[in-house]
Amino acid sequence: MRFRLHHADGVEDIEVPVSVIVIAGWSGRDRAAVQEHIDELVEIGVAPPSRTPLYYRVGASLATQAGRIQVLGEGSSGEAEAVLIGSARHGMLVAVGSDHTDREFEAQSVAVSKQMCPKPLGRDVWRCADVAARWDRLRLESDMDGEPYQRGTMAAVREPVELIADYFQGYKTVPPEFAMFLGTIPAIGGVRPGKRFSARLADDETGRALTLDYETATLPIVS
User: Is pTM beyond 0.90 here?
Assistant: First the structure.
């Protein structure tokens, strides 16, 4: 995949392959906030997780930077997440992405619902090391169909090193070609379907932000 790496010396176009994608779920730092998100999904029929955090492996071919994705039916929506991407040349990078998920099928299987939808990624990235010292102050936000959908900071999500170490049993960085979605924050008004989604990971100290915008085209459900 092609990205624009923003660093102190400017912007560099880079290419980073992504061959493995893991999505960290139920990864909130505050147990009460995690339970709030679980409760949001229970309200739409989703069974609670077997453990927290829980890591879902999805096909690497789902990663996309297209401004329009195709989904089956009207029951899907996005979730803003910071995404770590391993690069052999540039180290661990951070992007903003969306764990777009089929909300209707989620009631039957969270793992399958995540595999059913593309996973949009923004084109701009930072080196994780460049923002690590102020990671908790990075703002994670999203809008859906033109309305505020998520508002918070990365302080609400478990620290990257903790999630990496938990998944890899001791590693402190993700390996090359590996992408990890770090988890989301609660939705304003509850999780619901939507067609137009935008996400931001903003660094107020520098005034910069990683952004993502896309819309969905729905395919008919036939039987």
Answer: yes
